[in-house]
Amino acid sequence: MAINDNITVMAGNTTIPAQDVETKSTIKHANTGEVYASEEDAQTDINNPATETTEQDIRRDVAINVNKLPDILGGTS
Hints:
- It is a single chain.
- It is elongated, with a radius of gyration of 19 Å.
- The longest helix has 9 residues, at 39-47.
- The chain has one domain.
- It has a three-stranded antiparallel sheet. Strands 1-2 form a two-stranded antiparallel ribbon.
- The chain contains one helix and five strands; from the N terminus they run ββββαβ.
- Helices cover 12% and strands 34% of the residues.
- By secondary structure, the protein is mostly beta strands.
C-alpha cells in the first residue's frame, strides 16, 4: 500500500511540496506470525468461528523510506 496524496507542507513562510516516499505495509498475526495478503484476509480470519483470532491479535506495520528530506530549516540534509 502506498501513500499517493498530493500534500503541501508549510515550514515558516515557505511552502514545500511533500516528497515522494515509498511505503510498505505488513499485516500479520502477532501470535502465529501468519502474514495476510490484505486487510480483508485478516478480517476474514477474525470473523472465522473456527479460529480464536481477535482484532487484538492483528499487527500492522508500516515501513516508510524517504530518500532525502527537504531543506525546510535553511540547512543541508
